[in-house]
Specification:
The chain is of the alpha/beta class. The chain has ten helices and ten strands. The protein folds into two domains: 139 residues, Nucleotidyltransferase, domain 5 (2-Layer Sandwich); 167 residues, ATPase, nucleotide binding domain (Nucleotidyltransferase, domain 5). Helix content is 42%, strand content 21%. Strands 3-2-1-4-5 form a five-stranded mixed sheet, with helices on both faces. A five-stranded mixed sheet has the order 8-7-6-9-10, with helices on both faces. The chain binds 5'-O-[(R)-(carboxyoxy)(hydroxy)phosphoryl]adenosine (KG4) and zinc ion. The site of 5'-O-[(R)-(carboxyoxy)(hydroxy)phosphoryl]adenosine has 19 residues, from helix 5 and helix 6.
């Protein structure tokens, strides 16, 4: 069957067509219209501008996705849409469009959790993982470890207590003059720096907990930058990028290893925008190799927000019979309020 996936939770408008047969998923079209250039002027996402841009783009992008997949409306079996969490105004554009689209074409509607969708991006690759597994979701809004017991059943076993990893990357990137979002630019800059140059605290909390905290690391990096500026010293940007990235990567690796110990899972799936980070990919790959754990991470092109991952997650909700209807509402939170 063909599933249409729609994503408007933040600053990308995306619609995709995914073909599903059993557990095998194939992307037929995945159109992503990024608003990054628009938000860059402000150094971050402006919610009202995001909502308006989604409204302007979504109809054409849907038509484009159907055309690129070479299918027509009558070929579609279900419509999946990100309903939570995210920017509420942005989510509402996708949810209302998907509801109207499903109603007008008499199609089943499926509400998708954006975080589960990031993990579902891994089902679109070459060797798709099969639950149960441990999932590390690292994005601009979330940093969590999940015990994934089934395609649709996620149990959070660890999370950041404050900022998300991506948020921390973006903040440091902005302060040292990198364009928004700073994550990818910091990734490149870190390759030219010395990892041990600046001592920064670990975001991994001590002890048995699988939780992390990025605020202390972020503050320490900002203090270091301010100190340099006060002394009239040029901030060693590459060294800072390398040291900061190392602290994030080592902190995430430490809690992931503890989570593997605690759950006994033999597969690790990493997902979310920050999963594109080359240092983090290499570190977790090595960690899994050492432990004999299977490591899966989506290709970089599917780590950021996209409609294909929404279609993939929606397909498994559809198979479970988890349908939504025209009463569906969006939610900024990690769950839909009853
Ligand atoms: O998953 P995503 O597209 O949006 C959310 O659901 O939040 O994640 C966006 C985040 C941004 O913070 C961006 O800077 C970060 O992912 N990111 C990266 C890299 N590429 C994107 N962070 C570190 N290294 C990268 N290569
Ligand atoms: Zn996302």
């Amino acid at each position: 069957m063909y599933i249409l996936g729609m994503e408007t939770s933040c600053d990308e408008t995306s619609v995709a067509v995914v073909r599903a047969e059993g557990n095998a998923l194939k992307i037929e079209a995945n159109i992503v219209a990024s608003q990054i250039e628009t938000h860059r002027l402000y150094g971050g996402v402006v919610p009202e501008i995001a909502s308006r841009a989604h409204i302007e783009a979504i109809t054409n992008i849907t038509t484009e996705a159907l055309g690129a997949a070479g299918i027509t409306l009558k070929d579609i079996g279900a419509v999946a849409v990100t309903a939570f969490p995210g920017l509420i105004g942005a989510l509402l554009v996708g949810v209302n469009f998907a509801k109207s689209f499903a109603y007008a074409n008499d199609l089943p509607l499926v509400a998708v959790n954006h975080i589960k969708a990031h993990v579902a991006a891994s089902y679109l690759g070459e060797n798709p993982p099969k639950p149960p597994f441990l999932a590390l979701v690292v994005s601009g809004g979330h940093t969590s470890l999940f015990d994934v017991t089934d395609y649709t059943d996620f149990h959070e076993i660890g999370a950041t207590r404050d900022d998300a990893a991506g948020e921390a990357f973006d903040k440091i990137g902005r302060v040292i003059g990198l364009p928004y979002p700073g994550g990818a630019a910091l990734d490149r800059l870190a390759r030219e720096g010395n990892v041990g140059a600046i001592k920064l605290p670990s975001p991994a909390l001590g002890g048995e907990t699988l939780d992390l905290s990025f605020s202390g690391l972020k503050t320490a990096a900002l203090n270091y930058i301010n100190h340099c500026r006060q002394q009239g010293i040029e901030v060693p940007r590459a060294d800072l990028a390398a040291s900061f990235t190392d602290a994030v990567v080592e902190g995430l690796a430490r809690k992931t290893e503890q989570a593997l110990d605690q759950t006994g899972h033999s597969t690790l799936v990493m997902a979310g925008g920050v999963a594109a980070n080359s240092h983090l990919r290499a570190r977790l790959e090595a960690l899994c190799k050492k432990r004999g754990v299977t490591f899966t991470v989506p290709p970089v092109s599917l780590c950021g927000d996209n409609g294909a991952m929404v279609a993939a997650a929606g397909y498994f909700e559809y198979r479970k019979g988890n349908f939504a209807d025209v009463s569906l509402n969006a939610s900024a939170l990690d769950h839909i309020e009853a």
